Amino acid sequence: MTKDEVQGATEEEQAQSKKGLKKQQKEAEKAAKKAEKQAKLAADQQGSEEEDFAKDRYGVPLMVLPTKTGLVDQLIWLRARVHTSRAKGKQCFLVLRQQQFNVQALVAVGDRASKQMVKFAANITKESIVDVEASVRKVEQKIESCTQQDVELHIERIFVISQSEARLPLQLEDAVRPDGEGEEEGRATVNQDTKLDNRVIDLRTTTSQAIFRLQSGVCKLFRDTLTNKGFVEIQTPKIISAASEGGANVFTVSYFKTSAYLAQSPQLYKQMCICADFDKVFCVGPVFRAEDSNTHRHLTEFVGLDIEMAFSYHYHEVIDSITDTMVQIFKGLRDNFQTEILTVNKQYPSEPFKFLEPTLRLEYTEALAMLHQAGVEMGDEEDLSTPNEKLLGRLVKEKYDTDFYVLDKYPLAVRPFYTMPDPNNAKYSNSYDMFMRGEEILSGAQRVHDAQLLTERAMHHQIDLEKIKSYIDSFRYGAPPHGGGGIGLERVCMLYLGLHNIRQTSMFPRDPKRLTP
Amino acid sequence: MTKDEVQGATEEEQAQSKKGLKKQQKEAEKAAKKAEKQAKLAADQQGSEEEDFAKDRYGVPLMVLPTKTGLVDQLIWLRARVHTSRAKGKQCFLVLRQQQFNVQALVAVGDRASKQMVKFAANITKESIVDVEASVRKVEQKIESCTQQDVELHIERIFVISQSEARLPLQLEDAVRPDGEGEEEGRATVNQDTKLDNRVIDLRTTTSQAIFRLQSGVCKLFRDTLTNKGFVEIQTPKIISAASEGGANVFTVSYFKTSAYLAQSPQLYKQMCICADFDKVFCVGPVFRAEDSNTHRHLTEFVGLDIEMAFSYHYHEVIDSITDTMVQIFKGLRDNFQTEILTVNKQYPSEPFKFLEPTLRLEYTEALAMLHQAGVEMGDEEDLSTPNEKLLGRLVKEKYDTDFYVLDKYPLAVRPFYTMPDPNNAKYSNSYDMFMRGEEILSGAQRVHDAQLLTERAMHHQIDLEKIKSYIDSFRYGAPPHGGGGIGLERVCMLYLGLHNIRQTSMFPRDPKRLTP
């Protein structure tokens, strides 16, 4: 947040109409009542001060945070959420949680805790954040319900750092329950919209924590692999003028006195960087598609992992760079994210992701032959339908035992105008898709780098040359042969983990019907 | 580029009206004429085939690229641009360029090159891309005009991989000339708009190559440092609904049947991740500001390097994390990007960037005292103007010899409503800005993490509570104390290198008047 935004906020505040003030007054009254209630509650909890010897051992600080006493070595000091809480006579059992991990804790009336302090602890709402000072004790019997099974914490001081509202819009244990499990006992699961509507809570579940930590890993593996290969990271603009890209499926932006568009892909900019001698580039950033597609695998905004590179002799150098990058990602996930993968599998069981080294590369004609053999009727220059892609994925898995492969040499007719034709067979092209578990995660090609051939191809596709003038002009001052592709981050995570909805791998998904939170 | 976009393009092509066809026909005729001319030129260049013994040693391949003969060990095979070319009797001297590096090359009539081949080489336009096979020879006298001064290449084969148009919109050597240099000799410099209008060529200059390779380094250093500190990378949405953020300086997007906005900062989402137990997060992505500011340091779209973290005891933990990250960036640049820094300095001289370890942290009152002493009149709770920020930067540099420092504890009155007040002095706040060479690069703060206090602060600022409801609600289910800040990537690069216009450090800058390329 820069200074400018601060000023922006101030202007906004000034522009604030007075019509909202009445509502605000109401809110204020509500807030005041609540504060009063809380004060009463705190007084109740604490009882009269004289009789509580432990009054400094608990409380609700706000601005100045408590610190470890530091005097007793055996005591630990930690911050955690109250995952569950259960009062039992003179004791209160808490399960304290930090991300995916939790531990049992205990406040018991004795020389370190008063009756009032136990009552205070028992009243702490689930999901509240507490600081506790405690001793760590071995337990005789394993605590099966916690990740830390061999110990429990005996609490000597406890402070509520942030109190949660008592009524949660969803329960974390319901949100991680596998579909169908516990149905007989009438246990609930949480539907996806409720999860997404309350994403701040849903993201605390072990499943969400695992998914997004793994996603962070995918980005890092992608970038590190490419950086090691000599790629340069670039930043491409998301607001683009009308001229440079097509008009379909594009979001329009009001731009001062004119209109602009949100970039559907960084392709033109990646290619310009190649024409500007950056040789090999990648970028990671949002990509926008104004498609009214309400499917399990479409988002209107997703994260593109984009690659573009000049090659020396043959566009298969590009395929090799991309597939090797994917293999490095798969290996990195397998080797460093087993905990996360197992955590997700608990809720969403799936087969481990399989891949070959080197990556399997099939030609389009080979794939067609496999499909024909399986009884599919389709023409040589026809594109693959989604069901046929999935079927092909299964056939390839059976035959080659891999969940990842490249389909090379698509018919020229089904690819965009900027795709380089196959010099040996004009029916085909130097283009490829890549698939994970039978679903497409990348589409790419050698691009036409010659302005004249590009003009001819565009005319063949009946594209208005005026609209793509700046694109074509980029290649007029010397452009090396090059190719690339764009990968959808959310799809890679979804398919790697064997999930079935892309909204599970987008932190704050956007689709035609969802713009919040 | 995914399959969907491919389909998008096809639809667009189909939607193409016929009104453009006439224009296309014209273009086609033009293209055909050009092709004919080129063919003639090629024929002229090659002469009649019978008499040219070297006809296989040069040419203009398009789809199938030539390869190294591989027979002669002493020969190298390389791809480069023709930087300059000069024919001289039976010889043609070329300067070949790869990014920042160049070397002299020679084609001379002899047993490896015919007269026709030398003529062919002499006709290759500047900025064309060639593949050459050549022997490397030591030279007696250093070639001062090239980066490779001790050798030259004797070309035995040469192929034009991509021919540049003869007339360039700008000359690379003009684009890197320091302002004022060579004025007497009537040498040109290139103004910024011309550079930006022809960015594909301008990005080939040594200065641009250095700037954007260094920028790539800044991103890597930022992420690597934070990853080592246990931060998780997150991806936040750029299309947001009306409710979550303010209305000033926001771009509007048409979103199917409704309207949406482009995110001014990822702040809400970063904070939601903290409320969702991600503990420490960062993100790198575009940030949009619909401000009609036409200054040297404002863009309408820039890259935000954003940080947010929970802290244990005091918000200075956040400041320490951010300043240490900046210091790691400065050190990484100093240690690994000296070539790039020196290259940029050749065209834009500046003092080396100085920083202290640990970073200097001044309180707002101390800064005011320094300004008062320097004769500036301003009130205790007044914000710093841009000229005063710059003056302060100079005073700090004089006194502490650093180009980077933190200004802490801003007056509460000049900060946004979500800023945590100073618990010890209600006039001030737990907020900070960071400065490089006297210009702000980051604004940040401890955020109010308590829904009730946040409501009070918003009401104090007369903000419509309805509009920020989802923001406030994020803190109702337990939120740890946290803080963060956002850094502008382009500003960091500009100020580190001592440049004076942010358009130099944005590859494809966007401002109120520029949307292309």
TrEMBL record, chains A, B:
Q: Which GO MF term does the entry hold, naming one?
A: aspartate-tRNA ligase activity
- Keyword set includes Transmembrane: no
Give any Gene Ontology cellular component.
cytosol
Domain of life assignment: Eukaryota
EC category: ligase
Q: Could you tell me where this protein is found in the cell?
A: Cytoplasm
Compositionally biased residues, Basic and acidic residues: 24-39
State which Enzyme Commission number(s) the record gives. 6.1.1.12
List the keywords (alphabetical).
Answer: Aminoacyl-tRNA synthetase, ATP-binding, Cytoplasm, Ligase, Nucleotide-binding, Protein biosynthesis
Provide the GO biological process annotations: aspartyl-tRNA aminoacylation
Coiled coil (residue ranges) = none
The segment annotated Disordered runs over 1-52
Where is the Aminoacyl-transfer RNA synthetases class-II family profile domain positioned along the sequence? 212-517
Kindly give the InterPro entries that the UniProt entry links to this protein.
Aa-tRNA-synt_II, aa-tRNA-synth_II, aa-tRNA-synth_II/BPL/LPL, Asp-tRNA_synthase_2, Asp/Asn-tRNA-synth_IIb, NA-bd_OB-fold
Question: What catalytic activity does the UniProt entry give for this protein?
Answer: tRNA(Asp) + L-aspartate + ATP = L-aspartyl-tRNA(Asp) + AMP + diphosphate
Described purpose of this protein according to its UniProt entry: Catalyzes the specific attachment of an amino acid to its cognate tRNA in a 2 step reaction: the amino acid (AA) is first activated by ATP to form AA-AMP and then transferred to the acceptor end of the tRNA.
Q: How does it assemble?
A: Homodimer. Part of a multisubunit complex that groups tRNA ligases for Arg (RARS1), Asp (DARS1), Gln (QARS1), Ile (IARS1), Leu (LARS1), Lys (KARS1), Met (MARS1) the bifunctional ligase for Glu and Pro (EPRS1) and the auxiliary subunits AIMP1/p43, AIMP2/p38 and EEF1E1/p18.
Which family, according to UniProt?
A: Belongs to the class-II aminoacyl-tRNA synthetase family. Type 2 subfamily.
Protein name (record): Aspartate--tRNA ligase, cytoplasmic
Q: What is the lineage of its organism?
A: Eukaryota, Metazoa, Chordata, Craniata, Vertebrata
